[in-house]
Records
---
Amino acid sequence: MAENLNENACYGKKFLKKDIKNTAGKCAVILLILSVLTYFLGSLIIRILKIRSSLLGSNSTTGMISGLSNDAYNFWVGYFPCIAADVVAIIACFFIFRKGINNYISFKKEVPSDFIVSGAFASIGVGIISSIIFLIYSIIINSHGIEIPSPDFSIPKETIYLILFFSYTCIIAPVFEEIIFRGYILNNMRKYGDFTAIIVTSIFFSMFHFNLVQLVNPILMGIILAFVAVKSESIVPSIIVHMFNNIMAMITTLISTTNSQNILLIWSSIYYICGVSALLYFLFKYGKELIDICKEKNEVLKVRNKIFYSFTNKWSLMYLVFYLFIILVTMVAKNS
């Protein structure tokens, strides 16, 4: 009897290990499609602009064709490829997992408004903690003479591109990213345990940003967003929280460009006090539920093993290699 139980346990481990690798591999395929297509489209558009520049004439210092502003260039090279790749990735999700978006949008249970509101404001506190952590490791890296490249979050000056910029950052990106990460990836990993799914999804979410500035924040923010999605059984609340987080970040960026120290000081004070207070409130009220999720059952495989197998299949490893390659290239370009 004992031998049969051991054989069944061994078979169970092998099956679960294989299934985790298969599902996580599908998630990695989607992210590879998303990432590679984004960089491919961006590079293709840059190439087209350079060809047109050589034919029509342009300012050699900007590498843009006549009449194409910096704002226009940044949109077509930076944001348009992201939108197009997101759409393709969502279509790929449908064919790979054979599930429609409505499976993740519809509410399966009632969610208190306090949970969504406090979760939204708690995201500010998460951002503050992430900034402190980034400050610490950036100081350490900079002390070795290495500069960390920062993404371009400059605000467009032209009205049309300002509208497009805010539409993408505060509406389109949160919706598309939640569909992909908290919709398809999180929910398809949940069969191995909610905590495993939350951690794996959050790590994938961090890698998706492809820069060291946004290394910690997507992980911590991803945990909050995933917890909101798991508790509500819908991605609509996580979309709201994600939108709110991005809107607050944009407001902060806009205020920082006013050159008014008084306004910046007042806003920063309100921002920090509200953010930290909201995070403490959120953890106090809903922390027990989050802890309960962390107490995942481990009869067959421990959580750390399930997370390990999620990133050791061939597709996840390919995505990891691509991620490290992009990080290395941008670091070398910045410090050369």
---
Amino acid sequence: MARRTYKDKMPRDWFLQNSFYVRYMIREATSVFIGLWMLNLTFGLIRLSQGEAAWNAWVALQSDIWMIEFSGITLGMALYHTWTWFAISPRAMPARIAGRKVDPALVARGQWAGFVVASVLVLWILL
């Protein structure tokens, strides 16, 4: 008698049945937008190396309404990704100082403080 092969009965929308998995899948989907934004910046660097006319064409492309919308969506995705990462990381890798476990909320506040300081520093340099 031949054995029957195993067939997984997991539905395609299995992650929609649990809100934790939905948030996880949204978090993972944010990486697609970040990757596309990095491709855009890489393309800008390539255009910069091709001369002033190519660079000005890329800069003009960035002022189109669809690129502004894409940038806004990507910023929202990046902030969501940051928010969830700062919430997960203290629990995924608990910090210890002198053998004692550090409160995860304290670690998350430290991460947000570093984020704010880095953001202000970048804005100060750019403006």
---
Amino acid sequence: MDNVLSSQNLLTQAHSELMFIVAHQSSELWFKVLIHELSLPTDINLKRIVKIFEHLNTLWDIIATMTPADYDTFRGSLGSASGKQSAQYIEVERLLK
């Protein structure tokens, strides 16, 4: 658990950066669970998969509390990174096709 809790490496002093990083890191953890669940799609797993997607959608509600100005205070430090570059996100998309 210490590894998980110490893996938020802030690049700026922007207040919203921690929330943004934690939201994306937790999404990656849920993508890992989705990949696992999609490997054996039973009725029980499908219910779980739906709930995980519902939870992932609530993360966007949290991110939406950040204003564009808040985001701009640290966006430059992220380089060219994009959520669509996530290997696990791409794998979830592939498994759902």
